[in-house]
Amino acid sequence: MSARYTISELVKEFGTTSRTIRFYEEKGLLSPQREGQHRLYSAADRTRLKLILRGKRIGLSLEESREIIDMYDPLSNNRQQLERLLEKVAQRRALLQQQRSDIDATLADLAEVESKAKQVLASHDATNQQGAKHAQ
Amino acid sequence: MSARYTISELVKEFGTTSRTIRFYEEKGLLSPQREGQHRLYSAADRTRLKLILRGKRIGLSLEESREIIDMYDPLSNNRQQLERLLEKVAQRRALLQQQRSDIDATLADLAEVESKAKQVLASHDATNQQGAKHAQ
DNA sequence: TTACTGGTTGACGTTTACGTAAACTTACTT
DNA sequence: AAGTAAGTTTACGTAAACGTCAACCAGTAA
Asked: Across the A/B interface, how many CB contacts are shorter than 8 Å?
């Protein structure tokens, strides 16, 4: 239980760099323990890193990822804070939904591009078959 | 037909800034005509701007947006280029699909956060109703 | 003892995507 | 003529997210 990871293990697993991981620590997004002078990452650290990189892939800034990750943290017991949290969740959800529809629109555009390109290729093939069967 | 737009019209419509629009031109992403010293944007320019901003929302760099927009352009007739295009489409599609699944994962996480927060709020309400009806 | 291997701490450099300010032009409007 | 609105160019500034050295340390293998 209670797995520990070296920095190079995380680098390997997530395909990032040690510089990047240390940078996230510098920004307060990670806080690994130390074994002597070396860093040792817990399962929680690893999860946080995973979430940061996921955020990165969808274009979130580190601050935005931090905000989202903070939402997952030990839920406050204070009513005001809970309501504030629900607001933030709603806002972020709206942004994510916008992103999804932007992605869908782009995918649709690409599908068109693809089908047109394939049509042109097909017509080339037909032409070439007439002119020269088995042509290279 | 053949609508023309001033820079401030585009700024209004898309909620961006003139600085940004000029910057995109500087980077070769837009190339409006001139009426005297002022810029005049065509429908095509407007569409390109729209696509750039859409790309921006999903975290694409300007170069990435340029690449995608270039795919929509007059399809080359050259077989090699068409096949190269199809490769690019496939690559970009893979990235977009990854993004979508990242977004879905994040949305799922947020849904959990929300339901937990609501549970806590509900239990507060119950407690308060016992202790003091109509309490502030 | 020497030489890696794996990690560490600075510190400065770099790219991207604009913001901001200054000084100027052109075309009205008053 | 003077002012204002809308736009322009030029140029320097800036925040984010790392990359890239350089110099150092600590443990292990040869």
From this structure: 111
Number of structural domains (chain B) is 2
Contact yes or no for A85 and B117 at CB 8 A: yes
Smallest Cα–Cα separation from A69: which of A47, A93, A99? A47
Q: Specify the pTM.
A: 0.92
CB B84 within 8 A of CB A114: no
Q: What CA–CA distances, in Å, run from B81 to B29, B73, B74?
A: 21, 13, 12
Number of C-alpha atoms within 13 angstroms, CB side, residue B45?
A: 23
Kind plus residue range of the DSSP H or E element containing A11: helix A7-14
A25 neighbors A32 (Cβ within 8 angstroms):
yes
Average pLDDT value for residue range B30-35: 96
Boundary-marking domain end, from B18, B48, B73: B73
- Report the C-alpha gap between A12 and A58 in whole angstroms: 21
